[in-house]
Amino acid sequence: MNTDFINNIGLTHYLVLAALLFMMGMAGVLLRRNVIVLLMSVELMLNSVNLTFIAFSKYLGILDGHIMVFFVMTIAAAEAAVGLALAVSIFKRFNEVNIRFFEHLKG
């Protein structure tokens, strides 16, 4: 198997892929009303940021990007836990996970 194309992947390729992933996640956040899809879109945006950190870390030859990815993954796990808890709470109350039910969370 010829693997020369892997060595020809540059920083620009990673950044373009990360930008596409971020735009897809942003479109999901802005256009969808389902809480679960919203959380998945946020995860997609965080993973695009992780890809950017890793790409710069590889091409600059430093490990700072790897450490930042660790922190981003920690924040993403906490965000997912809180978001899913809110989604379960909303589902128990309204039997649906639509974002418009967050309007009822006002004090």
Automatic annotation (TrEMBL):
Keywords: Cell membrane, Membrane, NAD, Quinone, Translocase, Transmembrane, Transmembrane helix, Transport, Ubiquinone. The chain crosses the membrane at residues 12-31, 36-56, 68-91. Pfam families: Oxidored_q2 (PF00420). GO terms for biological process: ATP synthesis coupled electron transport. The keyword Translocase applies. Gene3D superfamilies: 1.10.287.3510. GO terms for cellular component: NADH dehydrogenase complex; plasma membrane. Its EC number is 7.1.1.-. It catalyses: a quinone + NADH + 5 H(+)(in) = a quinol + NAD(+) + 4 H(+)(out). The keyword Repeat does not apply. One of its GO terms (molecular function) is NADH dehydrogenase (quinone) (non-electrogenic) activity. Belongs to the complex I subunit 4L family. This is NADH-quinone oxidoreductase subunit K. It comes from Bdellovibrio bacteriovorus. The gene is nuoK.
